[in-house]
Amino acid sequence: MEFATCTYQEFAPSMGAPIRTTAGHPRFPLGYELAGHAKLITPTRDLLAQNLPQDAYEFSYRRILNSYGIDRIHAELAGLAARNGGARLVLLCFDRYDKLKPPNDWCHREFFAKWWLEQTGEEIPELGSRKGSPQGGLW
């Protein structure tokens, strides 16, 4: 399986299969159809409502990931990949790094990518804007 992360706004169909990882659906037109929802890596509404600083949020989010475990998360993502013909899964959320300001210039997708790397040794690239860049990532 191949993964990447991006935002709903910066995603292009050539990147792969767009997978929702947010508690809510986008409330703006996407210009493409979502190919699934990775529910096990989606932050809970309870976690989002706490408005935690980065370190506390990451700790709490990792607890959620660890409670499901790598095998269960891998199985969910493998199912999404299979339903999308083995296409690269692009894990999407709302937070554009080129629009975020310190100290709140972080997103759950980077925490997931770090956790996945620790669990599997596989890196997940970010396809959207980068921290500190005025615009643009790999695309």
Largest sheet strand order: 1-4-2-3
Low-confidence stretches: 133-139
- Helix amount, in percent? 25-40%
Strand proportion, as a percent range, falls in 5-15%
Secondary structure tally: strands: 4
Rounded to the nearest angstrom, the radius of gyration is 14 Å
Instruction: Name the structural class.
Output: alpha/beta
Query: What distance lies between the first and last C-alpha atoms, to the nearest angstrom?
Result: 21 Å
Mean pLDDT: 89
The number of helices is 4
- The secondary-structure element order is EEEHHHEH
Layout: helices, strands, pairs:
Elements lengths: L2 E5 L9 E4 L15 E2 L7 H5 L4 H15 L1 H14 L5 E5 L14 H13 L19
Parallel strand pairs: 1-4, 2-3, 2-4
Task: Explain this structure.
- With 139 residues, the protein is an alpha/beta fold.
- Helix content is 34%, strand content 12%.
- The radius of gyration is 14 Å and the shape is globular.
Summary of the model, kept short:
Helix content is 34%, strand content 12%.
Which descriptors would you attach to this protein?
alpha/beta, 4-stranded parallel β-sheet
